[in-house]
Amino acid sequence: MTIKNAFYAQSGGVTAVINASAAGLLETARAHPDKIGNVYAGRNGIIGALTEDLIDTGSEPLEAIRALRHTPSGAFGSCRYKLKSLEDNRREYERLIKIFKAHNIGYFFYNGGGDSADTCLKVSQLADTLGYPIQAIHIPKTVDNDLPVTDCCPGFGSVAKYVAVSMLEASFDVASMAKTSTKVFILEVMGRHAGWIAAAGGLASSKDRHVPIIILFPEVTFDEEKFLAKTDRYVKEYGYCTVVVSEGVKGADGKFLSDQGLRDAFGHAQLGGVAPVIANMVRNGLGLKYHWGVSDYLQRAARHIASRTDVEQAYATGKAAVEYAIAGYNSVMPTIERISNSPYTWKIGMVELSKVANVEKMMPADFISEDGFGITDKCREYLSPLIEGEDYPPYKNGLPDYIRLKNTAVAKKLAEFKI
């Protein structure tokens, strides 16, 4: 039997640990040369496959592959590009088959979130739709933590740790200045429809170290009057208040508070800028001095403060993807299954991609406090283990020593293709 090569690509917004998944996949593939030949990475995601812009990962020494484990962002480049249906764009699927045939590719690994799962599902069906045998495995990744079935998503634990730490430190700062200066600090975090990242900000407050934090969730319709009343009460009681707001917060009219009318490549509203909207409400409604910040790329790039749990889970899902492919599976995704909370234990499971693609996991109602501005003990019990442990990268001259791969191009065999 001819040994098939593999294609791997990263998709969507990158994370502090997506390269750890790549390391798990590449190291495991190299350990099975009798099953998987070369692993070609797509430069800039699925676009790399369509344009035959492939990277020869075999040209990288093992030390460089291992260094991916502690390097943030996407080592091979990512993209926001969603394959349309076969009926709407048959030429893209025919192009993929030509690329796969030209480079003897029989395994397809796609590392991304919900939209990426949909792309992977479509590729996994090529055998049935166009007669080309391919095993497609999706590797979960999303800071939003909104993929279904899996207990959590690689990438989330680290962004949750970053946000929790940032809220704790900012709260100490505001508390020290509140007597004569800033009384309210607002931090905007990612989260279009699901408030998992915002919820992580609530971990900054605990029973032995209470911090007056207000959380604004996408799952809870924003009520300006109630928000200002809560803020006013906290400031009067504690002298200050900190607010973590998800970019996806909506008003009673169902519109995003931060919707600027722009759209991204997937057709989603281009969000960002809700923090100043909330800040203006604090100024106009309460007359309080405020500061606001937007964590933006910092929250998902902060490998220096990554969660060890997250790093280990990201690596494990990449490793499992190869093992599932070798075992003959197609159209599946490795999942993380929680065994117990205390001590926190987990294992890798598996789910069919049809149960993942285009499905979002929101915050459960019993994770949000009754007033809609905080997290419950049940939510805290879920979140706390995911941010535990430190996995510091090596440092050089005071800065993290991150790796940049050579990303040697594979020689093209086909004519140019316009996307």
UniProtKB/TrEMBL annotation:
Its cofactor is Mg(2+). InterPro entries: ATP_PFK (IPR022953), PFKA (IPR050929), Phosphofructokinase_dom (IPR000023), PKF_sf (IPR035966), PPi-PFK (IPR011404). The record marks 115 as: Important for catalytic activity and substrate specificity. Pathway: Carbohydrate degradation; glycolysis; D-glyceraldehyde 3-phosphate and glycerone phosphate from D-glucose: step 3/4. The record marks 141 as: Important for catalytic activity. Substrate binds at residues 142-144, 190-192, 247, 297-300. Its main location: cytoplasm. It catalyses: beta-D-fructose 6-phosphate + diphosphate = beta-D-fructose 1,6-bisphosphate + phosphate + H(+). The active site is at 144 (proton acceptor). Belongs to the phosphofructokinase type A (PFKA) family. PPi-dependent PFK group II subfamily. Clade 'B2' sub-subfamily. This is Pyrophosphate--fructose 6-phosphate 1-phosphotransferase.
